[in-house]
Amino acid sequence: MQPKVYLNGRFLPAEEAHVSVMDRGFLFGDGVYEVIPCYGGRLFRLAHHLERLDHSLQGIRMANPLSHPAWQEILERMIEQLPSGDQSVYLQVTRGASGKRDHAIPGEIEPTIFIMTSPAVYADPAKIGSGVAAITLQDNRWHRCNIKAITLLANVLLRTDAVDQGAAEAILIRDGKAMEGAASNLFIIADGIIITPRKSEHLLPGITRDLVLELASANDTPFNEAEISEQRLKDADEIWLTSSTKEIMPVIELDGVRVGNGKPGPIFLKMSGLYADYKSRLQAGTVEN
To answer: In three state form, how does the secondary structure of the chain look?
Structure first.
């Protein structure tokens, strides 16, 4: 049986869930979203995801329609529908429907809240073991990439360009600096140090990204948040991508050129092991989330 979705206070079958054609999410992409993994019945870093949701909503001049405890209650009811196995929970908040199509934000409007869950789909272990190819593309997105907005057409086209060229991801270059992937955060290894771009309006503050840095700090692995020039990216000893769905993915080829020795590097292997251990402890309920 397919799990029910949540729409504006109701749990109902997906085929019975309907949104107005006047919804500003449909007309303008006026909304934000989160994707939250669930391991062993435990929502991954829920407080961090809800804090990021707060920031995204503030960025588009919306108040959070629910308190954090209310979100947690609904999300926990949602994941109870799939009691076995890991899940991926998607939530979306749009500004809602008004009586007319107008670019100006209406004064009084009821937001649309939508949530769905599905069994987790992980990256192919063979790809993690052998690594993936990536290409660099110019970052043509807007200047508020720190907002997790549903307006993802630029990301979709950039990622599709990468797939068309036989790559798994596009690493985006803005003003000569590497920002992030079309759907992932970016890490490199240079001189034995983990480097990831510092947070700014030009990249999404990733939950998995932050966990990787926490694990590095707790395990005496040096890291730095700093600008990564395009040349430094190309000269990196290792390149990784992180996201809620990719977790940690090594890049072994960039723009057709081998990265390092063309295999996942030793620091990736260390951090991947630490991440897998954290995930196992989370599934077992033996780690603070």
So the answer is: CCCCEEECCEEECHHHCCCCCCEHHHHHCCEEEEEEEEECCEECCHHHHHHHHHHHHHHCCCCCCCCHHHHHHHHHHHHCCCCCCCEEEEEEEECCECCCCCCCCCCCCCCEEEEEEEECCCCCHHHHHHCEEEEEEECCCCCCCCCCECCCHHHHHHHHHHHHCCCCEEEEEECCEEEEECCEEEEEEECCEEEECCCCCCCCCCHHHHHHHHHHHHCCCCEEECCCEHHHHHHCCEEEEEECCCEEEEEEEECCEECCCCCCCHHHHHHHHHHHHHHHHHHHCCCCC
- State the architecture of 5-119 in CATH terms: 2-Layer Sandwich (3.30)
Q: Is the pTM of this model over 0.85?
A: yes
* Structural domain spans, the chain: 5-119, 125-284
The per-residue pLDDT for range 112-162, each reduced to its tens digit, is 999 999 999 887 777 788 999 999 999 999 999 999 999 999 999 999 999
- The catalytic residue positions are 33, 148, 180, 204
